[in-house]
Amino acid sequence: MIRDGAMDGVTMLLGVHLRPSMEVPYGKAAPVIVHGASTSIRGVILGLQAHAARPENGKNPLEAAALIIQALQGIRLQARCPFSVKITQLQGGGETSNVIPERAEFTLDLRAQTNEGMVELKEKTAHVLHTVATLTGTNVEWKYDGYVPAATVNEQMVNLAKKAISKVLGPENMADQCMTQGGEDFHFYPLEKNGLVSTMIGLGCDLKPGLHHPHMSFVLDALVYGTQILSSAVLEAAQA
Fold first, then answer.
1. Which of 53, 165, 222, 231 is the most buried (most CB within 10 A)?
2. Which bin fits 53, alpha (ψ -120 to 50), beta or left (φ > 0)?
3. Residues 137-162 pLDDT 10s
4. What are φ and ψ of residue 140, in 5° steps?
5. For the chain, which domains are there?
């Protein structure tokens, strides 16, 4: 949308997203969802195939993958930023059980609550990959696959959302900011468009058991409240 010019001339942006019941209860709304940053790493570990009876003649990429998994658990961020880094995919070897495979493919999921934390997390994850490759004599090739930035909280827009929520649901139904390590590409807009301010409202709707769950359900009436909150915020902004 940015590339195609849809955001040209836009200076203020409001969004709304349903929230699980444990985050924002039904009948309440949060003026901002503080999403975290996220990215993925897709990689290949290239070792040396050998007979399992002679492991000294090979370089086992699966053992290298195991070392990567273990080393990732030791990462700590100096900024004390909530984060996670974990392996989500690992494939290696064929149907034969007595052969050390030549290669293994893996995927890592990286998440950090702030953009600064993500920079540090990426650096330390890269260090782990390089170190394991050196220790095992394997070749670890990898690249980033997709990126979503963390939310940048704009107090002007948060206050605008608070007024709208109070008007529609009442001040007693104002929830605190909704903190989540889930990612949202909505936050590209203020980063890519200078002067654009935004906030994404978290809408309570008794959503269970969780977002994107195949059996997810929620109270449809909440969509009416969400529409009213957005409309009220737009009118408030136009009168400011």
1. 165
2. alpha
3. 999 999 999 999 999 999 999 999 99
4. -105, 115
5. 12-35+151-239 (3.40.630.10), 37-148 (3.30.70.360)
